[in-house]
Fold this sequence. Notes:
Elements (H helix, E strand, L loop, with lengths): L22 H19 L3 E2 L1 E4 L9 H14 L7 E6 L6 H10 L3 E7 L3 H7 L5 H14 L4 E7 L6 H12 L5 E6 L7 H7 L8 H17 L3 E4 L2 E3 L6 H7 L3 E5 L5 E6 L18 E5 L3 H11 L3 E6 L2 H12 L6 E2 H7 L5 H5 L4 H7 L3 E4 L2 E4 L1 H4 L2 H13 L1
Parallel strand pairs: 2-3, 3-4, 4-5, 5-6
Antiparallel strand pairs: 1-10, 2-10, 6-8, 7-8, 9-10, 11-12, 13-15, 14-15
Amino acid sequence: WPYCRKRCSYCNFNKYVVPALDEVAVGSCLVQEARTLLRLSRVQSITSVFFGGGTPSLASPHTIAAVLEAIAGAAHLPTTAEVTLEANPSSADTLRLAGFRAAGVNRLSIGVQSLDDAELRLLGREHTAAEARRAVEEAQRLFPGRTSLDLIFGLPGQSQGAWARGLEAALGLCDDHISLYQLTLERGTALAAQVWEGALPMPPQDLLADMYQAARTMLVAAGFRHYEVSNFARKGALSTHNLSYWRAEQYIGVGPGDAVSLPCTITGAHGRFVPWGEGSSSREARVQTLEPDAWMREVQSQGHGTRRRVVLSSLEQLEEVLALGLRTDEGITHKHWGHFSPHLSLEAVFGMPGEAKTLEQQGWLVLDSNGLRCTWEGLALLDSLLPDLLCQLQR
Length: 395
């Protein structure tokens, strides 16, 4: 769902602010594309559905219900499947949230970003801290134990003390899942322009690292498991949907720019998307048309808006398994690696003298009977470790 009421100062995602929206047409195209891609995949069972954006909570519950009905009509959608919807506090009133629950949503991911009004203004958010609190409290009433919060750190001028106080406030409010994202300055955004013109100071890299480490320590002390680079959960409230990405499972992207995605199980297949219905047995990376009006025209004419298809080589699949799997605390098990590489084991690739051994000796990486994973210290440095590991894999 690529539409928003306004564009935040830091955002360069595929989002559109439009004066008027034909939601019936958009919803009809989401339904049609979901049916088409599920048919091409010959999917048998859905494990999760994630409505992302944009601001999916601006869609009507009727539209969400129609998409879920289409999915359930084309494949098995068990009652136990995780169905998440991203929501902004400004479009998360009681009536709307109750409508989403009635439509089949059973998990909410709320873009709180900050509980400080000055920080929210800096980020260009349209809600206040008080509105965010009310939205989270109402979400927890309707979706107990299944409400996740998003927070951003590393804002211009933000001190470690301010970040710690903000996180402490969020801990007093949050449910059993929280996602922390370091602010990234993206070219073309209002916030990046202000920083690059010298109007706003960015925290130095050492301070950003300290903020991240302090947050990890605080959350683990509060009973959260740091199960992925940016994600923390307690009481087993891990995101099924996002874990499927990190485990390199198969998923179907529906909507402009993959706004909705469905990890799924297909007999004898793993990967992104295998279009069995077109006679193919190769895993593909598929990219949907980004611009909504063009996407709708393509869906109406050919049933889907897939703009680009790339058949993934064995090496490309293993690169994804490596880069995604090491983001989690479980890492990559031998069994999981074997699904993608039956003839070349983890030990054969990374157990020999080379980059991985060096990283092990430095305390960043572990290769043992469970598989390959980062240490607690290594997880914070993953981006700097990956290039060496990818080079070793390619050799």
